[in-house]
Amino acid sequence: MESELNNLIKLWVLTTFSLSYSYHISAKISKGFPRLVSIFPVIFLLSILPFNIHGFHLGAAHVFVLSWMANFKLLLFAFDRGPLSPSPENFILFILAACSPFKIKENSVKVLKGETPFQGNEPRVPSLILEAVNKASLLTLLFYSYNFKQYFHKHVLLILYFFHAYLSIQFLLAVAAIPAQICLPGVELEPQFNAPVRATSLQDFWGRRWNLRVSEALRLTIYSPIKTISSRVIGSRWASLPAVFATFVTSGFMHELIYYHIIRKKPTWEITWFFVLQGVLVDIEIFLKKKLVATEKFRLHEAISGPLALANIALTAGWLSYTQLLRNGVDEKVIKEFNAIVEFFKRST
What are the residue boundaries of the Wax synthase domain, all occurrences included (predicted)? Predict the structure, then answer.
């Protein structure tokens, strides 16, 4: 545990120096390829640094925050786009924008700029700290339920692992955005999820409800550029199809990176195939909507299309995602890690 904490400190010291270089030096270089070349060493460093963290929760979280989200934002920064452009007023805000997955609500922009004074008695979203505590409590209950996993049917375990993943992502995003909420008082942040269980289709689930900060990052870095290029080749009507597919493939590769950190074995590409399959299905959905729904030839009611979409995701995720983790004993590793953390705090107190 102590060596892990030392590695974590080294990681953030190196990350801070790398981002300082990007803020003070790379920002002064002309946008485009010259700035991209200057930032490339930082992107490479942030891609490999998290692999010095071996714990499941800390390690996977840092691969997501640094190797994925921060690197995508730096790629956009190289071309003067994204949340890092224009550069924030000070370095602390630059670090927050790079490493903290948050988005300021549109009606809070004027508050941030000082154009509208913040009134303390105005309604605000629930504190991210309270949200993190709430998710941590639910995760703790899940961990303790794993002590009786030998009595659970394997399908019940899969459902528990699905909720574990969902709660873990929510907890991670809440914790990562807490510094932004503290440093930007009076500013409301956009929610990280938008009721995924109420999705009416695969397109609605992935594009407007699930993990919105990741969706936004992928939209800016992959979807929009490819759609612009495709519209010149195949026309605007079908330009979204290759853009959507490329976005899902990219997401698959980034999830594969996270899985590699967790499993530490040669990739089997199952999680990548999960996202490739989802990309194909979303493209089919878009095609059918434009051919049938837009022309009023056929429309599936949301009460049917929504559950079908969620069932599709649950079944394919169980087939290509969770079984891979179970096959490599990740569930046992997670339970063991949780018990080690509990013991560490018991000894500390």
Answer: 190-276
Q: Which whole-number Å values give the CA distances from 198 to 194, 209, 212, in the listed order?
A: 8, 8, 15
Q: Are 66 and 348 in contact (CB under 8 A)?
A: no
pLDDT band with cut points at 50, 70 and 90 for residue 253:
very high
What is the secondary structure of 132-146 as a DSSP string?
A: HHHHHHHHHHHHHHG
Listed residue (177, 171, 160) closest to 137, CA to CA:
171
Note whether 73 and 61 are within 8 A (CB).
no
Contact 215, 140 (CB under 8 A): no
The string of DSSP codes covering 270-316 is: HHHHHHHHHHHHHHHHHHHIIIIITTTS----HHHHHHHHHHHHHHH
Cα separation, 34 vs 160, in Å, equals 48
Choice among 1-5, 87-91, 157-161 with the minimum mean pLDDT:
1-5
Residues 20 and 95: their CA atoms lie apart, in Å, by: 8
